[in-house]
Model the fold of this input.
Amino acid sequence: MSRERIKADLAIIGAGAAGLVTASGAAQLGRKVVLFEAGEMGGDCLNYGCVPSKAILTAAHKVQAIRDASKYGISVGEPSVDFAKVRETIQTAITTIEPNDSQERFEGFGVKVVREYARFENEDTLVSDSVEVKAKRIVVATGTRAFIPPIEGLSGAPYLTNETIWSLETLPAHLIVLGAGPIGAELGQAFRRLGSDVTIIEAGVPLARFEPEHAALVTDALMSDGVTLHAGLSATKVSHDDTGVTVTLSDGQSVTGSHILVATGRKPVLDGLNLEAAGVETDARGIVCDDRLRTSNKRVLAAGDIAGKGGLTHLAGWHGSVILRNLYYGLSTAQSSQPIPGAVYTDPPIAQVGLTEAQARAEHGDTIKIASWGFDDNDRAIAESDVRGGVKLILGKGGKVLGAHAAGARADDLIQIAGGVMARGGTVRDLTSPVAPYPTRGEIFKRAAGSYYEPVVFGAMAKLLARVLSAFH
Done:
């Protein structure tokens, strides 16, 4: 079969966040764009990640709110869960957002969408079953997929991943989760609150990339919900039969459940791209690229998870913007030029942007300062009877905000306050300036920032000045 030959300004492999942002922007600038996607438009986030996981978490949190209602003087019984209806709400969320990422929408921008696998023919040409595209620039945005660890018996077991778990038609009786990172923690809590028994097995430290005290807040919540957590123990063997799955742990004990979810990290999707033909270098994280996302082939860029800079949807979208700025606006932009927040959407949620305390101490030594405030001294949190958590600021010379961390209700939204200051290269003073509405949880960053200045504002010199000035007023 002969292929249609196309010359393009930009060819993109992958219609996840990075690919879609790049494609829409370039097409609206009048560039000829070809976008390859063999799977679902919208990529992992829309179909298997961010959207369905937040939908199921919403259902799970509402179930828990009913259980907790008695704390507020409201008497209700144990809620019943219609899992088929929960699945409907998940699918409704996906289908409602889906048009934003649809083939029709992008064709409306002028993008030629090819729903086929693409591979490199040479340094500037991609081929699929039906087309051959010679492009001035090529963006690889193929993302990542679940990493399946080499545990004895696992590959032959009917394991679930974040992609396949949404096909479950009934609630698991006992879900075993391998991994206590964001995916494991979120889905573990969701299924436990919906009625499954849940056991989470984590070889290292749960949520290790977050501040230890904030991660501990989540693990405490999981165990309070009834999740069994085995931290510091690895799975050494998996066996299965018609009745379920058994996992043997490194200390010799075993856990038997009805289903097993593998959430032990991600691996780059490089299969079948034939990157060697294009001279594109790769490593364990994905495609090797510089801070402007340029690869070893000057015509090829990498974006999103495959670029090895982090695995977040909003980071992938930012990568698309970086590519557009560099290629078509003449703005030399590094992908690292913006602080990228991360969040875990458990109850309570935790979020962070910038350096952790440990990272800051490693880079800046004892010059850093810490300013923190707890929700136990926030009037809105007190009124809501939920004072778990608080915020923590990592401050460098001159009060520059090097990192910000939040834990507790709405932490995932609150982190944007600090993120906005950091994006402007701001200092702790910038967090003290805005007047926040009362009572809101948003006041907490202002209170934390204010605590940094307390020794100066209310110290001995300030008191002397106030005494002198009071003589004139």
In short: The longest helix spans residues 50-67. The radius of gyration is 25 Å. The CA atoms of residues 120 and 126 lie 5 Å apart.
